[in-house]
């Protein structure tokens, strides 16, 4: 009996010590956990804030790149009431081909009114931001707009690859001869019915035929206005630049004033504003013709471009790669 009681008491003592130790451990653990929870909590808060700034910056960059803005022609409007800017080229959006091609006009318009168009429309009003569109080709100057104040400790950066028609060029005529220089192709180089006639009144510019190696002409018409003539430099260019076809010549004229006066290619772009001006005279607009003669030898085939560059573009900057949108890095920065 005694032994039994003693054992019971011993068991009781053991139990309460266990309980006390357990309680101490629990208290310590709870204390430590609370501390840990506090620090985790504040880290989560920091993280989610940073994350939301990240998200804001990413959605702002995507909004600028993927949309032409509202309304689509916002860059042409005098005032920006109700405007949400976007930089995407409208034609490219509609064709669905290249959503990431940006319009130079929209970029320039955003640059001139950056803070007004960005704050409260693309990003929250209390954030600073800046945007740089940097062509991959180092010979072209980057466009930079906006500013982040130096006091901002943290900056979120969003980088995207985009295309931009940086040189604002336009192709008036493209003669794609190389496409037809394989034996598989049965087609002749396409063109229009040229107004040049021989003395009997029959067409004198017979089309070049690469398949049968017959020399001949490729003729395209194009429209030029006085405004275009005053605001652009027109260059006639070939691809490759060096034309190995010694018989190749070109003529630019119009049907009212046609000429047989042909010129050779000169292994560099040829500025043709004077030739075009001589054709259209004082008229506000004129339809002109570009006639290109080639030997029909597929090994010497070359492509021909007639393209407008911004006024004052020197011949060394008149490059074929500028006729297509150029790859650029879009760098958007936003303060946190
Ligand atoms: Zn012709």
Q: Sheet with the most strands?
A: 5 strands, mixed
Give the strand order, joined by hyphens, for the main sheet.
Answer: 3-6-15-4-5
Total count of helical runs of at least 4 residues: 6
- Beta strands, count: 15
Structural class: alpha+beta
Q: List low-confidence stretches.
A: 183-187
Report the radius of gyration as a whole number of Å: 35 Å
What is the first-to-last residue Cα distance?
Answer: 77 Å
Please explain how this structure is put together.
- This protein is an alpha+beta fold.
- The protein folds into two domains: 1-165 and 326-336, no CATH class; 170-312, Sandwich (Jelly Rolls), CATH 2.60.120.
- Helix content is 29%, strand content 26%.
- It contains six helices and 15 strands.
- The strands form four sheets. Strands 3-6-15-4-5 form a five-stranded mixed beta sheet. A four-stranded antiparallel beta sheet has the order 7-14-9-12.
- Strand 4 and strand 5 form a beta hairpin.
- The longest helix is centred in the first third of the chain and has 65 residues, at 2-66.
- It is elongated, with a radius of gyration of 35 Å.
- Zinc ion (ZN) is lined by residues 194, 196, 205, 217, 219, 289, 291.
Describe the structure concisely for a colleague.
The chain is α+β, with helices and mostly antiparallel strands and 336 residues long. It has helices spanning 2-66, 90-95, 104-112, 114-118, 226-231, 273-280; strands at 69-70, 84-85, 101-102, 129-135, 143-147, 155-164, 170-175, 216-225, 232-239, 249-253, 263-264, 270-271, 285-294, 303-310, 326-335.
């Amino acid at each position: 009996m005694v032994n039994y009681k003693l054992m019971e008491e011993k068991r009781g003592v053991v139990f309460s010590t266990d309980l006390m130790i357990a309680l101490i451990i629990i208290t310590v653990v709870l204390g430590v956990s609370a501390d840990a929870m506090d620090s985790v909590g504040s880290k989560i808060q920091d993280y989610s804030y940073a994350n939301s700034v990240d998200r804001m910056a990413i959605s702002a960059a995507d909004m600028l790149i993927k949309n032409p803005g509202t309304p689509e022609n916002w860059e042409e409007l005098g005032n920006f009431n109700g405007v949400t800017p976007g930089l995407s080229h409208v034609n490219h959006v509609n064709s669905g081909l290249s959503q990431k091609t940006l319009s130079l006009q929209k970029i320039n318009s955003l640059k001139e009114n950056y803070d007004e168009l960005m704050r409260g429309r693309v990003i929250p009003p209390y954030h600073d931001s800046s945007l740089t569109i940097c062509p991959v080709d180092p010979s072209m100057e980057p466009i930079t707009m906006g500013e982040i104040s130096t006091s901002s400790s943290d900056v979120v950066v969003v980088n995207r690859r985009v295309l931009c028609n940086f040189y604002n060029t336009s192709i008036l005529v493209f003669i794609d001869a190389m496409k037809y220089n394989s034996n598989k192709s049965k087609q002749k180089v396409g063109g229009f019915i040229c107004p040049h006639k021989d003395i009997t009144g029959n067409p004198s510019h017979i089309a070049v035929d690469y398949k049968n190696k017959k020399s001949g002409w490729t003729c395209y018409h194009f429209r030029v206005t006085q405004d275009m003539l005053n605001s652009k430099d027109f260059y006639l260019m070939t691809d490759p630049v060096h034309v190995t076809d010694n018989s190749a010549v070109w003529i630019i004229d119009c049907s009212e004033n046609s000429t047989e006066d042909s010129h050779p290619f000169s292994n560099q772009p040829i500025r043709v504003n004077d030739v075009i001006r001589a054709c259209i005279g004082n008229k506000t607009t004129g339809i002109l013709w570009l006639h290109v003669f080639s030997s029909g030898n597929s090994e010497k085939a070359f492509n021909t471009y007639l393209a407008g560059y911004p006024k004052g573009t020197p011949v060394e900057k008149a490059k074929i790669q500028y006729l297509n949108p150029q790859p650029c890095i879009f760098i958007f920065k936003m303060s946190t």
